[in-house]
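Exercise 7. Predict the joint structure of the components listed below.
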Amino acid sequence: MRQLRTESREQLSILRPEPTISLTSDTTAEPVREEVIREPSEETVFRLRDVGLWYGSKHAVSGISLNIPVNRVTALIGPSGCGKSTLLRCLNRMNDLIPTARVEGSVEYHGVDIYGKAIDPVEVRRRVGMVFQKPNPFPKSIQDNVTFGAKVNGIKGNMNEIAEHALKQAALWNEVKDDLKKSGLALSGGQQQRLCIARALAVQPDVILMDEPCSALDPIATLKIEDLIRELVKDYTIIIVTHNMQQAARVSDYTAFMLAEEHGLNGTLIEYGPTSEIFTNPRDKRTEDYITGRFG
Amino acid sequence: MATEPVILRARGAVQVRQIASRISRYVFLGATLVGVSVLLFLAYDTINTGASRFGIGLLTEYPSRFPEKSGFRPGVLGSLWVMFVTVLAAIPVGIGTAIWIEEFAPKSRLLTIVKINLSNLAGVPSIIYGILGLTIFVRFSGMNSSILAAGFTLALMVIPMTVIASQEAIRQVPPSLRDGALALGATRWQAVRHNVLPNAVPGIMTGIILSISRAVGETAAIIMIGGFTFIRFDPGPELSEILNPAGFWDGLNEKFTILPIEIYGDTINSKLAFKHNAAAGIMLLMIGVMTLNLIAAVIRERFRRY
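Solution:
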């Protein structure tokens, strides 16, 4: 059993009767969740209930329940191996590609369980785009990189316009407009990552998942991506995994802190709430330790 | 001022290690030279013996009782047509199998067995494929000793190699490309078709060309299915039949022989002068195989991307 917290629970004990605290069993812990898990008031895009993921016999993530709000940046933070990338990949069924992976619980996207029976992962991924840790442009021209998603999804329209629009959204247009025929691989790392964002935008997704999008980039390129994220969140819901706590503080509206009992096993949600609160007034001791750099 | 100069020359134990290192270099050079010198000697001996008979006549003349008038025309044509059938049959099956194994197959014990057996099949002696071809194609399917039967037999022989080479090429494509495509809502096949295959093509082509260059010199399997014939006509479709499907089909069902068998035929001929013809034929075959290998090397270097 986990160590019980005392301080923040005392503060809230005036509001509700003393609950039995258990972060792993969810049905009984519902009142506790509201304490360290502060669900956003905005409309929900993803509603996760008891989400767990197994890699073979390894329980990588367990008992995650949280709501992800529309048109906000939600950051997933936590030490390496806490399962935040794994959780992110549950949201567009990228874990399907790992033969031994098995998801439990429910991941509802606008009220539909994306692991339900008649759900096609291709449809899910078209609506829930993804940007990877390492920029991975296709070895094709910039133009073809951007229009690839639109083409495979059978989106009709002028491909030049689609490319231009997406590149402008990704703040890359001015840098590449004169050589759209150039290979995507010829761009700098930061440009490649923005190309990947443009590529994801061109299929007109609803949500964009970002898996440590800046970890391979220098600080200036990182800043550009962060500005871009703030710009894009006006139209899209963004969920970002990051190791960089300053980045989480800078770009996100909500922050979820995850922790694993041991490396790569049983990652659980420790605390979730508005970023400003998580970073200024964490309610869980472990969150506080992590964001102040005492472990992780 | 330093009173004692620093000595950086190897001494003692270091010197011993360095000597061992220098000697090892010559040992390994020697090992390489054994192979190369044998090859060079063979090439020299062949050219020395065959140069007198080497010329365009080898391609234009039919075999004859007179060594100075004898050529390899039916064999060269036969080899080309057999390879044509082999390539057409082996490529779709080989690449298709590789794609299935690498991209679609559920990870299971069956898959492991298939994979292990592929490597085993690639090492099966060619005569076994000859027996298989004789049973399946020549007898059971009633193709007789035709170009088709030979092409399919050699296809069976090179398919394992093609599969292994294609698998290797597909595995070389970074998974991030596949993931990137899938994350954009591409289907499995779209990701394979647009992102994996185009980047695997150079490797696949190289593998196929190398398999072909092995098949083109294959003799035992073809003798087994009845390709050891003495023919004085052009096997395979005539030029005029190439655009005519029925004629083309008939051409592929003709009796045939191949260049390596004609060379073998010359070496066992009682007239000693035929040994010059055989050597010239070997030169022809060597030029063919070396050209194929050169093409493979060019493709490999040209498209090296990652």
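Discussion. Residues 12-50 of chain B form the longest helix (39 residues).
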